[in-house]
Amino acid sequence: xxxKLTAGERNGVEVKAVLLDAAxxxxxxxxxxxEAYAMVARRYGAELDPNKLLHAFGDAxxxxxxxxxxxxxxxxxxxxxxxxxxxxxxxxxxxxGVNVSDFAGFFEALYEHYARGSAWECFTEVPTVLExxxxxxxxxxxVSNFDSRLPGILxxxxxxDRMDAVVYSSEAxxxxxxxxxxxRALDELGVAPERTIHVxxxxxxxxxxxxxxGLTGLLIQRDRSLSxxxxxxxxxxxxxxVRV
Length: 244
Prior knowledge:
Elements: E1 9-10, E2 13-14, E3 17-20, E4 27-29, H1 33-43, H2 50-62, H3 74-96, H4 103-113, E5 120-122, H5 126-135, E6 139-144, H6 150-156, E7 165-168, H7 169-172, H8 179-189, E8 196-200, H9 203-212, E9 216-220, E10 233-234, H10 238-241
Parallel strand pairs: 3-6, 3-8, 6-7, 8-9, 9-10
Antiparallel strand pairs: 1-2, 4-5
């Protein structure tokens, strides 16, 4: 635990709300990304190396624009989301260098796979931590660079009904670290930034973005083989309880 952090209060101000990132903070894929891609590709007659897929995914994901759109209807939003992910998946396959003859079918199957709760799992401490935060009178929200599949995934994992708001970038039109997505969550909760903590697994997007919006930002760094980052850091959401 980072001893530089104070618990529960920020400059003597009571914490009233906790915002939480989704992937990497509340949940993770139930299979590594490379394994899931290879599993789905096999149905379409392509043998892909999971390790190469994992590295290709990381490279391609890092070069994509924000998953955030200006949209006029849910149908348009869903089309824009699918187009974004189709571009990403195509770039991954190109990097791996193996042809998937029915790419359209492969992509749709992969997209639907990640829409299901079974493709994800909560970190073990999540239910207990959410209950404890609720008991302390905190409002809770998810703030995530994600798409419109997120509410259904959270519902399947038993998280959605524990939240007062779920804000995701594609619908909000802004992605972390843009402070606008944090302000959207604050508006929905009706709380002030100085009374709010945001927790996520990306130092720039989550901690930097939260601080730029006037919140307290905490980095969750679950890999204990890594040294504590130079920003306020916790190793598990359990550590959040003593800070609220």
